[in-house]
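dumping the sequnces here before i forget
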Amino acid sequence: MTVLFGIFLLTLLVVVAIGIVRTGNLFTAVMLTGIFSLLMAANFFVLDAADVALTEAAVGAGISTVLLLGGLALVPGRERNRRRLHGLALGIVSLITLMVVYATFEKPRLGDPSAPVHQHVAPWYLEQTPILVGIPNVVTAVLGTFRGYDTLGEVIVVFTAGIGVLFLLGLPGAIGSRKTEEVQPGNSYLGHHLIPQIVGTLLIPFILLFALYVQFHGEYGPGGGFQAGAIFAAGMILYSLIAGEREALQVITPRVLIGLMASGALLFGGVGIVSMLLGGNFLDYNMLADNPVAGQQWGILIIELGVGITVTGVLLAVYHAFAARGR
Amino acid sequence: MELLGLFNYWVFAVLLMVGFYAVIAKTNMVKKLLGLSIFQGAVFLLYITMDKVDGGTAPIIQPGVVDAIYSNPLPQVLILTAIVVGISTTALGLALIVRIYEAYGTIEEDETQRLDIE
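..and the predicted 3d for all of it:
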């Protein structure tokens, strides 16, 4: 049954992807991308990846759709000079598809427990997490401590991309010559729609609360800094859509946003430096408390907070950069 | 029935190439960007497909449950972070497109190239 459901979802995924490429209206394409992400999240859940599904739903279906719409508000919404189908490209693409499909016959079947990927470090992670880290969610343990360097690197990449967007587009009140007061007040997106406004206003506190739950419950269930940051940013973006761009910039000011972007990454790196000063290796949380397991838990809690702060700051700053440019 | 175990990989191949088609055949830059995110989504699907173990469940260890089978946590970690990095880089691309539109007045690649030559 699950297999059939998976096949149904995957088929829909292909249909939606072709729809995105074929449509000439970019707004349609962006909305289809939101559906694509939601289907992808459902697929991830079917494949046992609860944390990834939560991330994809929050980031892909939520934030990325809003960001793309914010960007589209600044550029033309229709594709010009549409050719029907590009023959050469279609030929190359079909050929490569056939080659990749041919190569898959060598792959282990879906769910095969003897596949090489399950023989390497994964059993060690599953076995040692309760002993060395003492938290139930193995994904968080791998993310926070066993592969903490990777995660630090990813946070820096997110931070760098955020800086790039802000330098390209500017952020009123922080980067560029515009001040927050020059941004048009009042909302224009949901101005004429009473029901979304009322329902949205009611939902915002609960979205923010849920973000905090996801942030601090990430050791026990699906969740963590990346998801929480995206959900928190989504809540504030909803506020900005309902109350207006300038009003949202006054609640969390641009300077605070820039501070959040940097301080999260610094907090993460700072934990590494502190553990070095205490006599361990970089990001070796064992040193943070008398008991190594408690040290690991403290370390994960703090770096997840750092991740959450940076992701919130970057996503929100990027959204404001797009939204304020058009106002 | 045996071949159905490969269906995820086939969808990966098709999605990868649908995205790639948009990147090489479309002139509209937003379309290219959306193609890249489909391409990226296909790679996510490949990784997450590999984490599945038959009869397994999400790798969240329950106390008192002894013989549970857990799916592989490693691909999940890699993709979890990649999703957030993906949206950041997409935003960066979109910001570049906005600036290109402000400089050239068009987001069609062939037209910006023609304007460059003139």
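Chain A touches chain B through 104 residues (CB under 8 Å).
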